[in-house]
Structures are given as C-alpha cells and as structure tokens.
Amino acid sequence: MALIMAMRRLLHVVSPLSLSSCSCSSSSSCAAALAATRTPLHSKLCWQQPFLVAATKGQEVCASAGFFTESSSSSSPAVFGGCSGVLAAKDSRVSGASFNKGERRRRRRGAEKRGFGNRSSSSSSSSVMGLGVQQERAVAVEEGMDPVQKRLMFEDECILVDEKDNVVGHDSKYNCHLMEKIEGENLLHRAFSVFLFNSKNELLLQKRSGTKVTFPLVWTNTCCSHPLYRESELIQEGNLGVRNAAQRKLYDELGIVAEDAPVDEFTCLGRIHYKAASDGKWGEHELDYLLFLHRDVKVQPNPEEVADIQYVNREQLKEIIRKADAGEDGIKLSPWFRIVADNFLLDWWTRVDDGTLAEAADMATIHKL
C-alpha cells in the first residue's frame, strides 16, 4: 500500500530541481526526505524502506517508490529497486499502476529467462538459479538473510568484467557472491575500496555489520562496495562511474553527505584483482578500484551496514594487524583490506603525509593478488 501511495504522489508535475518529500510511512524524519537533490549523480538511502536511486539533473526522485521521473519528455535509464531499465517519461508524469505492472512483468520475464542476472545456468540442489523472483526471496528467508541485505542481494545488479576490466554484462549481487558461481562460471565483478584520511592523516576503518552476508563483523577500510549496472556508475571517463558509486555508498553506509565527499576529490590509485572465500557458500571475486579521499567529514554510521568505526594512525593499524594475525581480541580483517595493507597502504600513507599521493597512481596496471 505504501508503494502504491508513493507512486500516486508522483502523478503531479514537479519542478525540475525541487526537493521531493519522501513518501515513506515509516518515519517522518526518514533520510529519504532528501532523496531528490540538486547535487548531480548523488543518491540517498531510506533506511526504513531502502531503495537506492540514482539522481541526476532534471530528475525527481522518490526513494520509497524506488524510481525517478524525467523532467524532459525523453526516455532515460531508470532504476527500480536497484535494477536498470528504461522508463519513458511523458510530460513529467509517470503512471504508478502501469509502471508497477510493467516492471513486475519485465522482472518476471527476466527471472525466467536468465535467473537473477544475464547469465543462464542449470539448476541444482545447491543453487537457486532459474527460480522466479518470489521463489528467490523465499530461499533468502529460509537462509535467515537480513531483510535489507536480502534486498541488496536480489535487486542490486553488479557489473561483470573480464580480467582486463572490460564490461561483459551484469548479474545480481547474490550470484556474484556465490562461490558456486564464482568457481563454476568465473564470475568477476567490479568493486571499489575507499580509504578516507582526516586532517590528522588518520585512516577511518569500519567494522562490517553482523547482518552482512559476506565477511560479517570484520574490520576493513572506510567503505567497500560495488558500482551498479546503471548509467551513472558505468561512466569510464576519469573512472567517474566508480567515483559516483563511492560517493553513494559513503552516504549509505556512513552517512557522509556528498558535499563532504565530492567525486572530483577522490584519487584513484590503482586496481587489484583477487578472490577470497567468506565461508563454504559465499565469497568475493572482484576487480577492485582503490580510492583515496583526504578530508574531515561528519560520520553517522548506518547500523544496517556498519557495526563500529575507528580512526587509526599507522602504529595503531600495525597493532590491529598483529592482533588479527595472533587471533587476539577476536579481531578479523577483510581479505581485500589485508591485501592492500600488505602491498600498498603503508607506502601510500607516507605519501599522504608528504603530499605526494597522486604521484603513486597507477591505473594502467591490474595487480592480480
């Protein structure tokens, strides 16, 4: 009902860059009240009814409904619950009922045709490939998956790449993190890792939420996630798509607003290609962009994503690594963070201190580690 009401509210014509109110009925102070913003290529997250939506100039956004309308009469890429599609906007209006039915029909056909993503696979007792959307969700419920993580797993579409980082397709976050699919089909997806330093040259670490499907309750770098298969996060020039995704997830996970994390202030230092198992079922196989940001920011962690945060200097990080190696205090580190810490981080940290970080950038090389 809340979704239907949200769609109906979008039937009126709105000015191209005005703020739209969130239709979420869960909280009047919901973060999605600021979902529509003048900031290009920025998104907001409604923590009560969380749909990620990409907002660009000329678009009005309703985070609860999970889609946006165009201020022009042209068709444009749209996001519905994290899945890319094309929605023809006419006279700045959208028919909520027809959109809902059409989207449901499209997604049902897509599920029947390709499982969760654009890859087909034979079904087996240990895989949910080929199931319909409702069946997929039922599997997640049986697995005891957190509702927010379940939504992200089934509705986020990761960017599939080859080992040279060429885009070859897209697939659900669920499939991209199944070891069965990683090993069986060599699914490799694009990712990013943000390393945020404050004015004291301390690195912000986060402890991943216990509801995370992969690597729960491990310490890692500031923010780690994936650019999604949507127009704003596929932009290759200047690695803008990845930087847009990093800005989006800094807000989603840590409440860091776009003004505190401008996309043009991210320094892209390099790329790594790694594979790591989380448990018997889940794992990572990523081509990971390493992004640095040197700013003082206000942090408001989202408990659905982050269990704890801590700023550390170099000596404190070395002690955390020592404890993780010794198994002390239950400290565990994410595999991608450990790879970066062992191979690059301390040298880059020195460059942060002396202001020569940009000289270390090497985006031509993909380090397979």
UniProtKB/TrEMBL annotation:
Coiled coil: none annotated. It is an enzyme of class 5 (isomerase). InterPro entries: IsopentenylPP_isomerase_typ1 (IPR011876), NUDIX_hydrolase-like_dom_sf (IPR015797), NUDIX_hydrolase_dom (IPR000086). Its EC number is 5.3.3.2. It comes from the Eukaryota. Residues 98-131 are annotated as: Disordered. Pathway: Isoprenoid biosynthesis; dimethylallyl diphosphate biosynthesis; dimethylallyl diphosphate from isopentenyl diphosphate: step 1/1. Pfam families: NUDIX (PF00293). Catalyzes the 1,3-allylic rearrangement of the homoallylic substrate isopentenyl (IPP) to its highly electrophilic allylic isomer, dimethylallyl diphosphate (DMAPP). This is isopentenyl-diphosphate Delta-isomerase. It comes from Sphagnum troendelagicum.
